[in-house]
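Q: What structure does this chain adopt?
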Amino acid sequence: MHARIPALEAAWPGIASALPLFFAGDNVRLQTVCAALSDFLEFQGRWDEKLALCEKAEARAAAAADHEKAGWRAYHAGMIHYQRRQADAVLASAERADAHWARAKAGARERAIAISLRGTGHYLKKDYSAAIVAYSEVLKLDRSLAAESEDVAGDLNDLATAECEFGDLAGAEGHYREALRVARAVRDAEGVAIYTGNLAWLALAREDWPDAATLAREALPLSEAVHRQELIASNNYLTNVSAWLGQQAPADPQKVTPAALATLLGKPGVALALAQRQFIAKVEPGKLGAFAKADATHKPFLTWLLKNPDALQLYLLGATPLSLAAREDNSYGLATGALDNWAKIFTADPASRDGIYLRLAIATALRPPGTGSPGSGQQKTPSTPLVRYTYFKTAHAKKELFPSFDNLTVWEMQFVVCSGASETDLSWGREMVNTYRPDLLAGEKVVDTTSLVWRRNSPISHVDYKTVLDGGGKCGPRSSWSVFI
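A:
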């Protein structure tokens, strides 16, 4: 059915114009149309149309003594009132459904549904203990019909939601996970999307940011697959975490002081949530989802990253534009190409996940070899980010680099590792200074070797940095040398 929803949406204007004909016609046909359109109208958020259809069809069924169908129409009307948080209307719908089904001498399933709707009314009135009692009774009735079913999964979800509001988070998590297990067992795609999203909400309530982000990332494509608009919105972690962060700041603007902000940002949960929010917003959720699916190594990389506030902060700081105007405008985005570079380094070298090698990995991912304007002496085919990362890691381990390398920020390190020189030239440059101008090592003054580049029009082609030094040059070649060295 879910796959046909786009087609129904396209045909809806014609269907809507034909509905008065069904209201004027046979009751059986009208009830068939109601049942056929029910999920479509709900999934697409056409609640006004569904409520009007249900109310008219309920009255028509009751007049025709079709009490079983009248009960279903009352129930579906009640669920629209639930979506709108109209507690009294939900309870009234539950009473009508119960009365219709009593006249129809309906079975345990219909009785369970009426009780469930009543429990929903109690939930909306914030009488969570009464809701828990009702949902527990419903679960018992539905399990008497089948140990595992879509109804059982839904009952577990309702019970968990009431427990969450009541403050029993442990009980809620257990019932949400059981609901998800049952939904998967009975192949209920919509239920899997709902219960995964609810687990993400619960993780938010428990301030378990890594789990919340992971679950929400799983829930969003599931919701998109069943074309249910309110699920897509509710399972958007970016929206949810943004709302939560807004609630953490003092409501009174007078209380938003430097000290208050320092205290707030000092909370690990807030710091991680803020970094996650900025990262997801700048990459964009859709692009991040596509990146996660593009390669088998991407999902474990993202799972690690979203749990690591230090890595997120380093990446965001390194990727922020230098221009003050660009930062204030804040419309810049972050490309997934750098994440792909980083994921390759992350997968290849566990040492890249902490300390100086974490900074090196991020810097190389953000500005791989050859980034920027090409200069004299650069290699024709730039090295891969992984090759360049490994080169500098090895040189660092051998203590071949200046001590100041250890203190470079990600932003600063980018302009070291992005050199278009080959690894062979980079090693040659260090050997040349060590051999011919060791005096420049003191104070790290190796940039002064630029004066060794003969200022003239070079008689030879600059195929590498040896030929830059040998042939000389004017503005461009000398500038390329200074950056290289």
